[in-house]
Fold each of these.
Amino acid sequence: MTAAMDDGQEVENTLRAVLADVLGLDPDRVAGFDESTPLFGALPEFDSMAVAGLLTELEERLGILIEDHEVDADMLETFGALLTFARAKALR
Amino acid sequence: MTAAGSAFERYRTRNSEEWLMRIGSEDAPAILFVPPLFEEMNRTRALLASIMRRLAGCGFGCWLPDLVGTGESLAPLSAASLEDWRHDVKAASIHITEKSGYSPVVASLRGGSLLDASASAIGWWRMSPADGFSLARDMKRARLAGVEWAGYEPSEALKADLEAAKPMAVAPLRTVQLQSNAGQADARLPGPALWRRSEPGNSEELAEATAADLSSWARSCAG
């Protein structure tokens, strides 16, 4: 497990890479995601199994632990919400 | 260099005989692949076969064992321990050395890195090695999709041993990560984290880059 990051841009790059990897999306498409891009409920690839994979991969790559009670529909709703969550966990 | 072939062989391990898939010549410099664990094993099977075929084309004999309780093994997963799996890797390495005349290079993916130190080998190569803690956490998190451990039924002892397991120090060792992963690595390879996909897939890009990196590392180990 890598140490928690100290760079917001690096967290964002990691989140985009993990979304492309876990959901099997074209990286160019993920590069076009902005704060308001809808995720959970909007992407057919983003099912509950993918949520589990996403959380684990974020943990491994950002060096963080995400507890079940921290995971809810709001935090997964948009790219912006997920990025805010990942930054809050990784940058401390 | 001899002509490539492929075969399924039996190797003798602790309490049973298990299958060993070979792609490439029996008597060529050998590479022993140690697969990821549980669901990640299924998700990377096609990638592993692609890598093995490419390396067979470069003159290597590539071998992939079924660990006891997995794949075609007749034993139930619930009867397998982490020590059994480490013993399987060691037994496979001895089988390969006897068959090929070469002590193998061991190539481990993900959780395979938790098992590979027991092998009798001239070198080690690891792709995206994972702590057992993280693997166990992921399997427990599968409850978000309905069922813990995604329907696998390992013994409580295996779960506990897995949670405490870390890749062990071996030498010489080369560690590779995906380009999108900032973790410690000797090299970074392009391609997706197929072990994370809910649907099994393959990547020609990753297979090609992996075969090239592993081929040069195996040659340098044989020095």
Amino acid sequence: MKEVLEGSHAVSEAVRLARTKVISAYPITPQTHIVEALSEYCANGSMDAKFICVESEHSAMASCIGAASAGVRTFTASSSHGLALMHELLHWAAGARLPIVMAEVNRALGPGWNIWMDQSDSLSQRDTGWIQLYCETAQEVLDTTLQAYRLAEIVNLPVMVVLDAFFLSHTYEPVDIPDQASVDRFLPSFVPRITLDQQNPNAIGQMAPPAFYMEMRHSIQMAMQSVLEHFIDVEREFETVFGRTYGPITPFACDDAESIFVMAGTSASTCRQAVKTLRDKGHKVGVIKLKMFRPFPYQHIRKCLEQTKKVIVLDRNCSFGPGGIFAQELRAAMYASEQHPQIFSYISGLGGRDVTVDHFLEIFDRTEKADHPENESVWIGLNP
Amino acid sequence: MNQSIQTQSPNNVSLLISQSRTNTLGNKTGTWRFVRPKYQEKTAACSNACPLGIDIAMVEMFASRKDYQSALNTILMENPFPAICGRVCFHPCESACNRQFLDQSVGIHQIERFVGNWGLKNTQQHIQYPEFNGAKIGIIGAGPAGLSVAYFARRLGYRCDIFEKSDKPGGLLMSGIPSYRLPDRILMDELQRLNDDGIQLKYKQSISMDQLETFKQHYDALFLCCGDANSILLKIVGENFAIDGLNLLRQVRSQEMPTIEGTVAVIGGGNTAIDVARSLLRMGANPIIVYRRTRKEMPAHPHEIDAALDEGVVLKECLSPIELQKETNHLQISLQVMKAGRKSNEGRQTYIPDGNRRETMQVNHVVSAIGAEMDMMWRNDQWELSMSHCQMKRIADIPVFWCGDMTISDKTVTHALASGKQAVIALDVLRNHGHDEIKNACHQCQVGNGPAISFDIYKQGKRKERNNSEIANFERLNTAYFPNIPAVQVNKISQEACLNSFDEVISGFDESQMIEEASRCFNCGICNDCDTCRIFCPEMAIQWDQNNRHILMDYCKGCGICIEECPRDAMNLEVEP
Amino acid sequence: MSKTSQETISGCIMSSKYPSTDYIMPGHVACPGCGAVIAMKFALQALGPKTILVIPACCWAVVAGVHPQTSLKMPVLHTAFATSGAAASGVRAALDMKGDTETTVVAWAGDGGTFDIGFQSLSGACERNENFLYVCYDNEAYMNTGVQRSSATPYGAQTTTTPKNAWKSHRKKNIIDAMAAHRIPYAATVNIAYPDDLMRKFRKAKEIQGTRFIHAYASCPTGWRIPSDKAVAISRLAVQTNLFPLYEVENGTDYTINYQGNRPVEEYLKIQGRFKHLTENDHAEIQEMVNEDWRILNGKAS
């Protein structure tokens, strides 16, 4: 059923359809609409779930860990400082191999307080063992949230569904909301592989000395390495039921491109506009929207970028020191490849500053004129 | 238990997490310790003080749980006459009782009486005496010592012939202790315990020393238990006007109540003097006890003195009679006033005449009760064996044991019973292991560090595992587990009833009182299954299954909490070997 | 309306009430004489096997078993340090959604995870009246990490972060008052030397819905520098000196005192290594503080 939905509500609809049982969340702009809607559903009975109004994000993730360990489907959502506060427990959730799904609204970190779009928060958590899937549209948000549960429950790793603050969370788009029966077909009841077991009592999460710890970490890595293939399977199943698919990356006009933009989030829509304009002018340019960031989809990226000469990375984030994080990851991905396109790193659009078509045209121009990339990421759109 | 810690998903995704179902029994934490606990029962202070070494803590434990058979059996291992002792014993146990340091001593005496009474009513629980061992012994005198010899000897399989010169058994129990302390019925019923083919009582058999030689044909050993038959004389002018106290008591007991009225001076300070005075009260007379020292030095049991004074007996201290004169209607006693002299090396206070100070008393009667001694014919100086409560010499090749009042300094029923037990054990060791083994064997049977020896230990009972070098005294207990509870008061008949009859003065506890009082017993030194050790053990190393409490040494870390918390000092901490 | 309990507790044990089933296995690695193990032993005997334990970082996180072992016979969820209140809330929510109304969820945390780093999640859970039993076993310092001070460390104590020439000069936080302020249905103190009282309170708490908080005094011979065999004796003294009163608070307002002590605090202080540096003046000062706290508590109970 098609409805015009706010991005935030695409999340809450999906969580409702997924028959999540325990939701534990602490409000933070711009995630609030997600949790408010869910709270309403729990109160009016359209969801058969318990909503725990915890007193901090750290407790939100802790409650989800508790509930998931007791064997039910869980959900939380956060952003920015809330996500940062959860950091300890993000490690814990992944280490505990719990299939928790979280909506993460990309927002800047302070000081100064900034509630607007920025990717630094989610990317700061890239080492925690969470699967990270970045969305571009409200439809993709809904679809990805459903897929996240399926995927998480197969690989026993938690999944972060990421959407841009305000640009996606607070804008309205037409969304096809699936019916419950179809969702039930795609997403069966949760059968936990790890749970507190009264019949055959177990202890979960206890101290693991050196003789045992490494194997557990290796297991997480093995699981993470298997995510891509399982994701593809899940997407295939999803397509069978709902007719839509996204892929770990979505290339556009890349086949013969000599330059390819790479980015995640709503910027990809803007960039596609710029690419069309540039193509009209005769430039051989394309854009890859990066959906799956963790695990990094090496095969797909390499296959797509191998034949191109210049990779133009837009990071709406910064890791102080090395610069744009996507650029870092791409450099690492392409290093193992036989082909080494040049990787041009650009940082723009931090803290909610808009990235426009003109910005992309400017970036393209700069890149065209450059023989080789700068050592440091180039910042675009800074005020003098 | 399913011990899987790794699961594979149907898609073969690796899932190795920190999860566990294996228990910790594989960690033998017992290797950590450097001291280890041990269940070690000890002698309680009360048992240590008891001349018979009765396992009192155990008795109270059973009694409080209404297991009267076990309580009785425990007493009977050391004492054949609980119903008697529960009335006449001077209960040194209560003076030693550890509970007095918390609130008040436990009423052990009354509890023994209760259990003894129960034994009399439940006569189907007669003693099972063993088969005969082929030996036969002769016992002269059927007083407490002689009866005790018969009891313990029979329990060891000896045939016993008792020769009693009067026509009744019991000795002073029958003739010396008045019925308001020990009713006839109780005595006769209690003596039923010795009703067995192996014990033959022959009355009106007066045996003299020179007859002993002939006994050697019939007996493998002899026991002289004749008691102190002869009253000690006053040795003053006019002595013949005095009535013999012991004789008076004998008459009262055999219902030949003499008529004695008016004021009666009772000379003496021992139990006989007290018994005489209290009997005289009941006969309607007016007794005054005249004693040459003070009340503190009177050898009579303190509670007996209290009872007499409560009943109205008057006590005149520090007076010693020097002459009796018969006047027309009364007797006049001339008395020397005494005063405290110096203290002996052992700290005993001596009394000496206070110069020429005299007093006189006009009384209707005088009764002499200054003590008794054994018949001269039994005097002996050379001994082959000299123990705390008996002595032995061979006469015509058979061992002859002197027992009871003839040989002990503390002339009480309980000591007499102890004397019989000690002598029988000495004989049995002599016959089975030889003379040189006697002292050692008795040492093995010692109760605590006192002179009492235990028949139970002699028969290799569980009591032999008790540690005798450590007495469970108050400092060693953990009294946190005991709230202050005052002792149950003993029931007595009214003052009026006391004076008008020879009915038993003390009525003893009823069952609920007895249980209440027995429950106050700490059960010092023994394990009463309170389970405090198991309850607190942080290693779960103390297990109890099928009546067996044991420590899992594989896991005990030697923390020592069990020893510290044991309320009754039934455990020890030892260095880990 | 508040009252002082008629029941007199003397520390005597009714051994007939003690089940013979233990829910802790031998072979765990707690220090010899650990009071926290004794607390858990009694608690589990009172609660029974239909219990799930949530244990944050603390001594018990290690005593519960190092992988691949577990020393407890019921399911245990280990959780991050500050999270016991929140994790237990999550477990409870999940069990409720699964229709399980019989299992008791018990958060079992040390004083660090309750008074300090875990205070927020505990407070949040209390305010929401989450339906679980929260037990703080209090050994009065961060023992697991090496005896550093916590806000449960009593005034006057030496710890590795309040050494003897800078001993702890702040009073122990009154956690029961803090819990009572949330108006939770039940909060109580218990002590391992009073097992009858302890088990009665656990059984009572088990039957109540909503957040129940039990503050359990759990002596630590290792950290307090006392011989291991004194673990129970010192606990008893804490109650007898009114330093750790036994009382219950229902609905945040009804106070019931279970025991009146009458011994001087000096008896308690002078036998512990962690108080050895205190002078007679310090003892007197502490006695004053105990008297004051006792007066205030009695005021609440009347």
